[in-house]
C-alpha cells in the first residue's frame, strides 16, 4: 500500500487547487470527484467531469444526490468521455492540452462563472512510457497555468493498474497528492514568481525521480538564471544537488535554490559544484 506524500515546510498558496488523486477502485475516485466538483459549483465555477464511459453514463455518476441536476441543465456542469476524446494510445501534446483548458477557462469566465474546475480520470492516457512522459510534462505545464488563472483540477490515476512508481512520476508534478508516495513536489505554485516551487525531501528515495522531474519540468530561466522557490524543502542530499548541477550544465543556466536550509550552501562549496547558487530565505 502506498504511503501518503511526505510534507515539509509551509504549503504554497492555492496549492490545494491542483491535486493528484491515486485510487485503487474507480468508485473511490468518482466519489471524491463529486465532492471536488461540488465545491466548485458552490463558489460559482463551471465544472467538468472527464472519465471513461459515454455521456449518459458520466451524467448518471454525478446524479446520485441531486447536487448536479440543475448545473447539468444550465451548463454549469459538463461531462466529457475520455474514450471519445482520445483514441487508444494517444500521446498528448502538453502545450496543446494546456491551451484547450485555457480556452475553457476563458469561456467559463465570459459566461459569468467565477472559474473553471476539472476532475479527470487520466489513467488511460498514461499507459505507455511515451504517454507517461508527455503527460508528466503536461501536468507541470498546466500547473504553471493554474498558479495564475482561476482553474482547478483533480487528476485521478488508478494505482492498481499503473503501479505506484508510474503514478509517483505524475504526483511529483502536482502541489498535492493523495495516496501516492512521492518524496517531493516540483510545481508551478511559487510564492515569488520563481521558475518552480520545490517542497518535500530530496533523499535516496528521490535519486531516480528527481532528475526525471527536472527534465520534464523544462524550467524557464530569467536573465540567465533558473530560480527555484525551495522554501518548503525539508532536506536535500549531495546526489540531488549534483543532479541540479548537471541540469544547469545541460541547459546552460545557473540554478538559484532559495531555501531555509543551511546545509545546501555548504555542500555546494564542499563538492565544488558549478552552476548552482544557494540563497537563504
UniProtKB/TrEMBL annotation:
It comes from the Bacteria. InterPro entries: MEDS_domain, STAS_dom. It holds the Pfam family MEDS. Residues 198-281 form the STAS domain. This is STAS domain-containing protein. The lineage of its organism: Bacteria, Bacillati, Actinomycetota, Actinomycetes, Pseudonocardiales.
Amino acid at each position: 500500500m502506498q504511503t501518503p506524500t511526505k510534507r515539509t515546510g509551509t504549503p504554497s498558496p492555492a496549492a490545494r487547487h491542483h491535486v493528484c488523486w491515486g485510487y485503487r477502485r474507480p468508485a473511490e475516485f468518482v466519489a471524491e470527484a463529486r465532492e471536488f466538483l461540488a465545491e466548485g459549483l458552490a463558489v460559482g465555477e463551471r465544472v467538468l467531469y472527464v472519465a471513461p464511459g459515454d455521456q449518459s453514463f458520466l451524467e448518471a455518476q454525478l446524479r446520485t444526490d441531486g447536487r448536479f441536476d440543475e448545473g447539468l441543465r444550465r451548463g454549469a456542469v459538463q461531462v466529457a468521455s475520455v474514450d471519445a476524446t482520445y483514441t487508444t494510445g494517444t500521446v498528448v501534446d502538453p502545450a496543446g492540452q494546456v491551451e484547450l483548458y485555457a480556452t475553457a477557462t476563458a469561456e467559463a469566465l465570459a459566461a459569468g462563472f467565477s472559474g473553471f474546475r476539472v476532475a479527470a480520470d487520466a489513467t488511460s492516457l498514461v499507459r505507455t512510457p511515451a504517454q507517461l512522459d508527455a503527460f508528466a510534462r503536461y501536468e507541470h505545464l498546466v500547473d504553471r497555468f493554474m498558479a495564475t488563472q482561476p482553474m482547478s483540477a483533480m487528476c485521478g490515476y488508478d494505482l492498481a493498474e499503473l503501479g505506484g512508481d508510474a503514478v509517483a512520476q505524475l504526483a511529483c508534478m502536482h502541489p498535492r497528492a493523495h495516496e501516492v508516495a512521492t518524496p517531493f513536489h516540483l510545481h508551478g505554485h511559487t510564492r515569488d514568481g520563481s521558475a518552480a516551487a520545490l517542497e518535500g525531501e530530496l533523499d535516496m528515495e528521490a535519486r531516480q525521480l528527481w532528475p526525471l522531474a527536472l527534465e520534464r519540468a523544462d524550467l524557464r530561466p530569467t536573465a540567465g538564471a533558473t530560480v527555484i522557490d525551495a522554501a518548503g524543502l525539508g532536506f536535500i542530499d549531495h546526489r540531488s544537488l549534483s543532479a541540479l548541477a548537471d541540469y544547469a550544465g545541460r541547459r546552460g543556466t545557473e540554478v538559484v535554490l532559495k531555501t531555509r536550509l543551511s546545509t545546501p550552501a555548504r555542500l555546494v562549496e564542499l563538492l565544488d559544484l558549478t552552476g548552482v547558487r544557494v540563497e537563504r530565505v
